[in-house]
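Our consortium's second objective concerns turning raw sequence data into structural hypotheses that experimental partners can test. To show how far this objective has progressed, the report includes one record in full. It was chosen at random from the queue rather than selected for favorable results. The single chain below, 132 residues long, was entered without modification.
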Amino acid sequence: MPITHVALVGHCGFDSGSLARFASAVAPGAEVVRINDQRSLDGLPSRGLLLLVNRVLDGRFDVGGSGIELIKTLSSKTDSGPAMLVSNYEDAQQEAEAAGALPGFGKSQISDPAIKQRVTDAIAGLGTGADV
């Protein structure tokens, strides 16, 4: 089964709009969900899921406002979908990858064909699975 959900984690309403359009373009047919609290995050399926995590989280999460800390927490769970950090800061991207994230991208890069391909490749690498 192909990816079924792309979760926009910790993004403000304005950014969520452009990221939702981007996610829909690279993952046609996937449900794009906006997640701004821990309970909603915990309720997501664990398979067929890609998380696009904001560097500075907007909302209420157990880790506070750090997207990198959230990625660290998610990476320690075996039932979590892969995450990509959404940040224009290279140092934050390196930190997120060290914490277990896939290579991410900045919001200003979503029109870049190479970034679209990066996310498409990440989705293709998810393999198959059913919603949990």
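The partners drew two points from this record. The helical segments are 13-26, 38-42, 67-75, 90-98, 113-124. Residues 5-124 form a domain with the Rossmann fold fold (CATH 3.40.50.2300). Both points have been shared with the crystallography group to help prioritize constructs.
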